[in-house]
Design brief:
single chain, mainly beta, 3-stranded mixed beta sheet, two-stranded parallel ribbon, 10% helix, Prot_inh_I78, Proteinase inhibitor I78
């Protein structure tokens, strides 16, 4: 299986790009100073809330968006 490193040889791009766009914002239907529109996220993504169960499969092209109790993004990663 070939090595896939996000931002180098995957189609999704660099994590830091998404950190800059999403950190501290809430995911919603529209974009503004405090929110980011769902429609502008990559096709392969999931929003992970505190206590959510998630599959343990690794998809190097999937953007994982971790939100806190208030719904604000506090971390993003690929996998």
């Amino acid at each position: 299986m070939p090595l896939v490193v996000p931002g180098i040889n995957s189609s999704m791009g660099d994590k830091s790009e998404w950190v800059n766009k999403l950190m501290g914002k809430k995911i919603s239907d529209t974009s503004n100073e405090t929110s980011f529109a769902k429609k502008d996220l990559p096709q392969s993504h999931r929003v992970v809330k505190p206590g959510d169960m998630k599959t343990m499969d690794h998809d190097p092209n999937r953007l994982n968006i971790h939100v806190d109790e208030s719904g604000a993004v506090h971390d993003v990663n690929y996998g």
